[in-house]
Amino acid sequence: MHWAPEYLFAIIFPVYWVFVLWLIAKFGGWAKLADKYGCEPSFAVSWTGWQSGKIGMTNYKSCLWLAATAEGLYIKPGPAFLFGLWHPPIRIPWSAISSAEERNLLWTRSLVIKLTDSNTQITLYGQALPDGQRYLGDKLKLLEKRK
Asked: Which secondary structure element, helix H or strand E, spans residue 23, and what is its range?
């Protein structure tokens, strides 16, 4: 039987994609957060989709879905059929956040979140978490406006 290149691609690419997602989750930091803060997907929260951020060492460009409620910060990848494998939704309680600092990153702002019991750092770009700022309270350090 002769295997055409397109058939080989159809077999090899999905296996490669699953392996890459596992590597990213395992060594990037998501797996550590999911072990501690993993949760069931919630449909009761109001998700903000297509956000960018960095979890641990991995950049997630326009594939994060975020929600802020009184219970905590929810993060999940989206769309789930492309990025959900090895990346379960996480809910970080506000009490687990030691600090959140707004920083300038070239032409955009970022919010760097540090956790009390993990060295995995979360960075959210732009205005990814406008609702969450009210829950952070005195943990939030905003940039001073230039005069």
From this structure: helix 5-28
Taking the C-alpha atoms of residue 141 and residue 116, their distance in angstroms, rounded to an integer, is 16
Task: Name the residue type at position 111.
Answer: L
pLDDT for 10 beyond 80 = yes
Per residue in 35-50, pLDDT (tens digit) is: 999 998 777 788 899 9
Sorted by where each begins, the domain ranges of the chain are: 5-141
pTM: 0.87
| Strand duo 97-105 + 90-92: pairing | unpaired
Contacts of 6 (CB under 8 A, 6+ apart): none
Q: For 70-87, how does the pLDDT look when each residue is reduced to its tens digit (9 = 90+)?
A: 999 999 998 887 888 899
CB 15 within 8 A of CB 85: no
Q: What is the CATH number of domain 5-141?
A: 2.30.29.30
Handedness of CA 28, 116, 84, 125 (dihedral sign): negative
